[in-house]
Amino acid sequence: MQIVLISGLSGSGKSVVLKALEDYGYFAVDNLPAMLLPQLVEYLRDAGHRRVAVAVDVRSGASIAALPERIADTRKLVDDLRLIFLNARDDTLIARFSETRRRHPLASDEISLAEAIHHERAALEAIAEMGHNFDTSDMAPNTLRAWVKDFVGADPTAGLTLMFQSFGFKLGIPLDADLVFDVRCLPNPHYDPVLRPLTGCDAPVAEFLSQIPDVGRMAEDIRRFVADWLPSFVRDNRSYLTVAIGCTGGQHRSVYLAERLAREFRGQVRVLVRHRSIEQRKGGA
Fold it and tell me: What GO molecular function annotation could you give as one example from this UniProt entry (predicted)?
C-alpha cells in the first residue's frame, strides 16, 4: 500500500497536488485531523485500497503537532509512505491570497496575512524537515502536476533519488534546494544573437559551452562534490537530494550543466532533471 501525505503552507498548491493524485487513481482525503491518520490508513488498507493521498495541514488545529508521531505509527502499517511538503515565498503566498480573496486559516481581525504565514511556517517547521520539499513560488499548476507524477512514480526500493534543477537567480533560489551552485561566472550564450533564443538543451548551446575549459572545470568540480557527499546523504536515509544550479536567467548555462551532470550520475542512482525557468515559460506562469 502506498500512502502519499501532502502538507505545506496554505496557498502553496496542496489542492492541485491532491486533485492530481486523485486523477492518477489515488483515493484522496482532504483536511484530515492529524490524530486520525493511522486509523484512516488501517481502515482503507482493510477495505482494499492500494494507493491513498491524504492532505494534513494547519486546518487540523493544534493536532498538527502530533503529525510526526502519527507518521511514525503509520509507517508500521504500510510498505510505502511518502511526504510531500509544499512551500512558497511569502510574497507569492500573499499575492495568491489576494488574487483568490480566500482567507488564510490562521488569519483573524488581530493577525494580518503576513503574520499568519509566519505563524504557519513555525507550526509546520518540523514537518517540513521530514518530507520532500516542492517550491511552488514560480511554478505553473501543470508543472507541479508533472513533478508530483514523477515523485510518486519513483521506486521506493531504489534508494535516494538525485534531482538536478536549473534555475535563474533573477527569480530567487528555489526553496526546495539542498545544494546550490552558482555558475554565473561562466561565459553567457545570451550575448550571442544566434544562441539567445535557444536553451542549454539545444545542440548549438551545448556545443558552445562544451568548448569552454572553465565550463568543464565547473562541471567536474560539482560532479566531484556531489559524488563525494552522496553516500553521506544515503546514510542519512534521504529519499531525495535536490542539486540546484543557477545562472542569471536559468536558460543556458545552468540548463546545460544540469543535463550534463544528470548524464554523469545515471546508472549510479535514480536521476531526475528539472528546469525551473524553462518549465515556467512552457506552463505560462
Answer: GTP binding
Q: What is the dihedral of CA 274, 278, 279, 281, to 10 degrees?
A: 170
> CB-based burial of residue 1 (10 Å sphere; 0-12 exposed, 13-18 middle, 19+ buried)?
middle
Please report, as a single letter, which amino acid is at residue 7: S
> What residues are designated binding site for GTP?
57-60
Residue 241 lies in domain:
161-283
Annotated binding site: 8-15, 57-60
pLDDT digits over 209-267, tens only? 999 999 999 999 999 999 999 988 887 767 789 999 999 999 999 999 999 999 999 98
The residues that bridge with 51 in the sheet, in sequence order, are 2
Select from 125, 152, 179 the last residue of a domain. Answer: 152
Mark which of 152, 174, 200 sits at the end of a domain. 152
Q: Known binding site for ATP: residues?
A: 8-15
Distance in angstroms (rounded) separating the CA atoms of residues 131 and 128: 6
